[in-house]
TrEMBL record:
GO terms for molecular function: aminoacyl-tRNA deacylase activity. It comes from Pseudomonas indica. Residues 49-147 form the YbaK/aminoacyl-tRNA synthetase-associated domain. It holds the Pfam family tRNA_edit. This is Ala-tRNA(Pro) deacylase.
Amino acid sequence: MSLAALRARNLALLTEHRVPFREVEHEAVLDYPTAHAVRQRFGLRGVESKSLFLRLKSGGYAMLVTLEDARADWAQLKALLGARPSVASDDELTALTGCVPQCACPLGHAAGIALVFDRAILDHDYLLYSPGPPERTLEVPTAGLSRLLPSLPNRVLYYRSCVPTIGAHAAIR
């Protein structure tokens, strides 16, 4: 899927489920320092997402959607997914989702890709994420995501991330 098609699918999902959003266009965001600068420049509210595309040892894939500073709890993910997960390669990410490495989009993927959604996101009023193109950011109210997630064709699993440790912003969304 192209980045334009992934963006269109995200906007259509949000519109169809009456989830308001704000979209801004900017330079490519491939790291958290740039994401923070964009957030400040445009007055975006909310928390940055971190989406990790996972390969399951038993076969299949999942997209983990969590917060930028969250650390993955691999044991919890294995129990939830029923198989040991690992971070998929950049080539797998691009081939199966259309996403650019360092900028995985959390929503709008093929039904066979499970979605693991971190409940900690719902503790915030807004989530910021790229709808595909790294030059775009969406500001979405988390209350709207709560309505949207159950209607997705993907298997949606809910997860609770580890408490962040020292806040290095080296990870990407």
